[in-house]
Amino acid sequence: MGEGTSGASAASVTTGSVTTGPTGATGALRCELLGPLRALRDGVEIPLGPPKQRAVLAVLLLQEGRPISYDGLVEALWGGAPPVHVRNLVQKYVSGLRRALGDGAELAWTGSGYRLTGVQADDLRQRRELVAEAVAARDTGELSRATELAGRAEELWRGEFAEGLQVPYLAAERLRWAEKRLTVLEARLAGQIDLGHSFEYVHELVRLVAAHPLRERLSELLMLALHRAGRPADALTAYEAVRQRLAEAMGADPGPGLRSLHARILRQEPASAPGVSTGVAVGGGVRVAVD
Fold it and tell me: CA 193 to CA 93: how far, in whole Å?
């Protein structure tokens, strides 16, 4: 999935809530986390203050309107080693965000925690919608549409998740979202291979395997693309390379998907033979999370 809504490009999707800035001017406020955190009013980026203040906003956006306790917010920002004047700092950052976001976004203390309403992480919402549409398209056999939606989801990324904000909570979220991004990327590539575009995606898969040398699904897709591009010897070389990497790094053998594809190539089965396919549309049988 390419995240957004069907029938429109990612750039044309409705982009956020209406808010009122500090000067009283109204405008659409959009927040994004699929890359460096940013907030835009009518397409113009607004200043959000120092890194820790920006991290507070990122943490609150990820709560999706649910309150987070004071202790929970401190833990999210500093882990088990908060500074001496941490309460003053939290109050300072909350006040700074209220001024930056304006009246349309409400950052309130509920009695049980801080809650941000009136604004959301719009790119995460678009991603969720596009992935859900892609999965639905795959399930109805619309391979080309599912793959196109997956591509639009990938286009929403501008860098690492909440890039540059080094706090414990976001570090963990960054790892989780990196996995989610790779899963959708693998689904898109699997769809492209099933659509007959193996040759065009060999180089991209070579680059991805180099960046993620122990990720078996990427090596499997590379082998399949090479095999379907009429390069079975290169596909077998790719298998041997990932087998050696897994043995050296983990003392493990390739998983069943890689072994099965390797055996079919050795038997010189046609590249389009049943069972060699990546599967229908998004994910080749791998269920893609939409949250």
Answer: 48
| Tokens at 188, concatenated | 């898109």
What values do phi and psi take at 106, rounded to 5? Answer: -105, 120
**Secondary structure of 103-136 in the HEC alphabet?**
CCCEEEECCCCEEEECCCEHHHHHHHHHHHHHHH
pLDDT at residue 270, as a whole number: 80
pLDDT tens track for 235-257: 999 999 999 999 999 999 999 99
Strand residues in 77-203 grouped as ranges (E): 106-109, 114-117
Token output for 59: 């943490």
Give, as one character, the DSSP assignment of residue 11.
Answer: G
Enter the DSSP assignment of 278: -
Do you know the residue count of the chain?
291
148 Cβ contact partners less than 8 Å away, ≥ 6 residues apart: 2
pLDDT in tens, 77-119: 999 999 999 999 999 999 999 999 997 899 999 999 999 999 9
Kind of pairing, strands 26-32 and 38-41?
antiparallel
Q: Which helix (H) or strand (E) holds 242?
A: helix 232-250
CA distance 174 to 254: 27
Structure confidence at residue 132 (pLDDT): 96
Round to whole Å and give the CA distance between 77 and 28: 28
The b-or-e profile of 3-19 (16+ CB within 10 A means b, else e) is bbbeeeebeebebbbeb
Q: Enter the tokens of residue 273.
A: 């033979």
Q: Round to whole Å and give the CA distance between 231 and 252.
A: 26
Phi, psi of 186 (to 5 degrees): -60, -40
Question: Three-class SS of residue 20?
Answer: strand
Q: Counting Cβ atoms within 10 Å, is residue 71 exposed (0-12), middle (13-18) or buried (19+)? A: exposed
